[in-house]
Write a structure and sequence with these properties.
Elements lengths: L3 H5 L2 E2 L5 E2 L8 E2 H18 L3 H4 L5 H13 L6 E3 L3 H15 L5 E5 L4 H14 L4 E5 L12 E7 L11 H10 L3 E5 L11 H4 L3 E4 L14 E4 L1 H4 L38 H14 L4 H22 L4 E2 L11 E5 L3 H10 L2 E2 L1 E3 L3 E5 L7 H16 L16
Parallel strand pairs: 2-13, 5-6, 5-7, 7-8, 8-9
Antiparallel strand pairs: 1-3, 4-10, 9-10, 11-12, 12-15, 14-15
The structure holds pyridoxal-5'-phosphate (PLP).
Length: 397
């Protein structure tokens, strides 16, 4: 069991703020500031370049990868950190395409995050081998996995609605027709219990600045199933994925295992912050986290629906069919969210009309949910959002 009152005390939460946006950017673990400061002053400051060896910077992408691996059910030694999620999507997809060379169709759904789709289009163009991206409605994915499909590329939890794909069933369907499955776990890692091994996932990627609380710009992760890794020729063949980077050979030879998915120099300061966040995650029971997340989201939906008939639930009502976020549709959702934020309830907005709230048991409890419901009720019942000050869109929504 995990004591979530104890984990809450491990985060710096701005005074008076109810933070329902840990699905977009997790808050600051209290130890992260000192950890980063120590890395700056004692490691960078005192060890300078010897920090790569003496402070363990070079091994950190694999070490942190293993700690994240526990949360997603990965085999030890098969997850590595680095770059951004968009880059990791590109790498995983490129490797997946190579595993099924005689087919051209990449299947995804319209609920996927645009960057995953853009990176796929860019890769198809770069390859120039006539691949086709087929974008289905989420509910039509299962029925579209046919014999012409090479790769099924899906984000497990829809970033807008929280709709959860059945990872085990869809992976099995992909394997049934000889396709491979690439899973984006951006809104899954740290949100729900994931079992890449049990599901037979071929590849998985995700980011660490959302539910994992690694801080803005924290590196992404990539998992490759052990059965594939030695057959993956890295599409982004950077020197740190080379078998012997410091031999400085002119010929690229991929490193052994997951290390070949490294590209270039890892972000040491970001990894220090993530390391502090993982000190908390190392002790979290994911089944307990999921149970608590479901209780919080059920409480939130019931409270908001009772108080605000003008809001329409955009998330699945069945908790087993959604991740750890709840979204409501409202035509003036942007202004309504700004009015909530002005009252210290922070969620976010996704075009065209989605008010999105993330539920993160590590630092959100039932009292926070009650307070959030009363702020939303006040904003909606009294039309507090109907104010020009809340309608001017900022660059980040
Ligand atoms: C957040 C998110 C991204 C963001 O990618 P970055 O390269 O880290 O900016 C990509 N894909 C999905 C599904 C996401 O939710």
């Amino acid at each position: 069991m995990t004591d979530f009152a104890a984990t809450k005390a491990l985060f710096h939460l701005p005074a008076g703020m109810i933070y329902l946006d840990g699905n977009s950017l997790g808050p600051l673990p209290k130890t992260a500031a000192a950890r980063v400061a120590r890395t700056v002053t004692q490691e960078w400051g005192e060890k300078v370049i010897t920090g790569w060896n003496r402070a363990g910077w070079m091994a950190q992408p694999e070490r942190l990868g293993d700690r994240i691996g526990r949360l997603i059910g990965a085999e030890a030694g098969h997850v590595v950190l680095g770059d951004t999620l968009s880059i990791k999507v590109y790498q995983a997809l490129a490797a997946a395409i190579d595993l099924v060379p005689d087919r051209k169709v990449i299947l995804t759904d319209s609920g996927n995050f645009p960057s995953d789709i853009y990176m796929t289009e860019g890769l198809i163009k770069a390859l120039g081998r006539g691949h086709e991206l087929r974008v289905m409605a989420p509910q039509d994915v299962a029925g579209s996995i046919g014999g012409d499909v090479a790769v099924v590329l899906l984000t497990q939890v829809d970033y807008r609605t929280g709709r959860l794909h059945d990872m085990a069933a869809l992976t099995k369907a992909a394997h049934g027709v000889g396709a491979v499955a690439v899973w984006d776990l951006a809104h899954s890692a740290g949100a729900i219990a994931v079992d890449v091994q049990g599901c037979g996932a071929d590849f998985a990627v995700g980011c660490t600045y959302k539910y994992l609380n690694g801080g803005p710009g924290a590196p992404a992760f990539i998992y490759v199933a052990p059965r594939h890794i030695e057959n993956c020729a890295p599409a982004l063949s950077g020197w740190l994925g080379h078998a012997a980077p410091f031999a400085f050979d002119l010929d690229y030879r991929p490193g052994s295992g997951i290390s070949r998915m490294r590209v270039g120099t890892p972000p040491v300061l970001q990894m220090a912050a993530l390391d502090a966040a993982m000190d908390i995650w190392d002790h979290v029971d994911m089944a307990a986290l999921r149970r608590t997340s479901i209780a919080l989201t059920q409480q939130f939906i019931a409270g908001v629906e009772a108080a605000c008939p003008m809001l329409t639930l955009a998330s699945p009502r069945d908790p087993d069919a959604r991740g750890s976020q709840v979204s409501f549709r409202f035509a003036d959702g942007y202004a309504a969210m700004q009015a909530c934020i002005a009252r210290n309830l922070v969620g976010d907005f996704r075009a065209p009309d989605i008010m999105r709230f993330g539920f993160t048991p590590l630092f959100i409890d039932a009292d926070d949910v009650d307070r959030a419901i009363s702020i939303i009720a006040d904003v909606m019942q009294n039309r507090l959002w109907d104010d020009p000050a809340y309608k001017a869109k900022a660059a980040v929504t």
